[in-house]
Specification:
Blueprint: H1 3-15, H2 17-50, E1 60-64, E2 82-83, H3 84-93, E3 97-105, E4 114-118, E5 121-130, H4 134-137, E6 142-146, H5 151-155, E7 160-164, H6 165-172, E8 182-185, E9 188-197, E10 208-212, H7 213-220, E11 225-226, E12 228-233, H8 239-253, E13 264-268, H9 269-312, H10 314-322, H11 327-367, H12 381-407, H13 411-418
Parallel strand pairs: 5-10, 7-9
Antiparallel strand pairs: 1-12, 1-13, 2-11, 3-5, 3-12, 4-5, 4-8, 6-9, 7-10, 8-9
Helix pairs in contact: 1-11, 2-9, 2-11, 9-11, 9-12, 10-13, 11-12
Length: about 425
Amino acid sequence: MSLDALQEVWFTLNQNRLRTFLTAFGVFWGIFMLVLLLGVGQGLKNGIEQSFSSDVRTSMWISSNKTSLPYRGLPQGRHIKLQESDVDFLKNQFPEINIIAAEEPLGSNFRADIYVTYGQYSGSFSVLGAGANYFKIKKSQNYHYGRRLNDLDEADARKVVVIGTKVAERLFGNEYNPIGHQIAINGVSVKIVGVFYDSGWEGRMSERIYMPLAAFQKTFGKGQNIGSIAVVPHSDVDNVALSERILGMLKERHKISPQDNTALRLFDLAKETEEINNTFTGIGLFLWFVGLGTLMAGIVGISNIMIISVKERTREIGIRKALGAHPRQIIYTILSESLLVTLIAGYVGLVLSVGLLELYNWMTNEYGIELPYFSHPEVDVHIAIVALLILVCVGTVAGLVPAWQAARISPIEAMREET
């Protein structure tokens, strides 16, 4: 577009400022709400995904409970206890397994109920024994200080621990590095070698303390019992089929009825992740529908206003055609007005919506604000590009009908209509 043409379009729009503003506001609001809704939807998805903790997304967790059915002369109500030997058994029986590890809680697996002290400071936290390869599954834990537990810690049964950030804050304060210090777990001293943050359960997984399973069993007299077995299959393995076979083998090994669905429990993180992704795909489509619906209202508004504008400028358009203006020039002029309004209003809406999301992220990071199941709302750059393309299409579609009507105006009819 030449400078003269741009000045002409700007002059025309400036003649009706209020009408131009109201027309532009419809497009601004449409793109603003579209991007904002998509950003909020992504924030919800991020928050839900963080609640799954730092575990590998294809992991499966097996735990035991009481039997609900009698089997082979054994009564119902037997409490099944998984053994460390079950880990070796599954590893040998299923070559589809990539990583397998054991976990044993000192107290409850879901409550912070173990008394831990450091000097005059104390608190109740979850304490767990972690077997070999355990931290290959907890691969997304973020370590602020020190290191993870490793194979040598397990092989040598070292009395060392890694603690969550919530534990460190309670016992040592926010800024203090506790690496190398000793804490007492139920009166037993252990050395800290790492401090981690785990976002699972809205950050409550950072209230945990992990100890090598071998040292854990010797120190607290747990024998070979374990609370859970974590399994990560190879990438080309069907989790559902593998989980059914694993449960079947364990039921046979522990003399559990095949129809008993309560004695062994399996949590398939891959299945849960897929369900969450499917849910948010549906939510995303709904948000697109709402946002585009709002944007469509802006399109209709621009189209109607441009039709009115063409009606008011009938004489002007007739004179132009009488002086030799080609219909394509008339269409170009009307479309230019529509596109200019759309692009300016849409760009402002896009920038403000992205800016609002970034402002929220900055405030939450600066002031430590945390909302449950909502984290870091953002808009992907591809969505921003799609939004800009939508703006161009919106401006073109909105101006097509009035531009076509303007191109069909007869100079003689135009002169007659004004007189």
